[in-house]
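Fold it.
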Amino acid sequence: MSDVQKVYDFLEKAKTFYLATVEGDQPRVRPYGAMLFFEGKIYIMAFGKTNATRQIAANAKAEICAFKGQTLRIECRLVEDNRPEVGKALVDKMPVLKPALGENGENAVMYYLSDAKADFFQMMELVETIKF
């Protein structure tokens, strides 16, 4: 299993992760759950034309945090990738999203994690760091 796959599997098991973006000088945090492992990258989905997508367009730096027995914190840049095959792969994985996203995910904004540093913590102790 690749290191990136290990990070993705942890997010999948956690089900919900929290995405932190920045609006001006104010951090914004929101729960997410739609994710995809595609072409060796971790993708997350945002609905089009939301505060989150505007914040990411202005500043692509983000952090993701999830908990499932351990804490995972990821520092990354979010890179937009709206190729139809990415949206379709998400809709195929999560068909419940099809009514909102469209047949091929055309109403979604897909981002992959880039320049990422994923830290796994047990209690407050750093146990592993994965960069991808």
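The CA atoms of residues 71 and 125 lie 10 Å apart.
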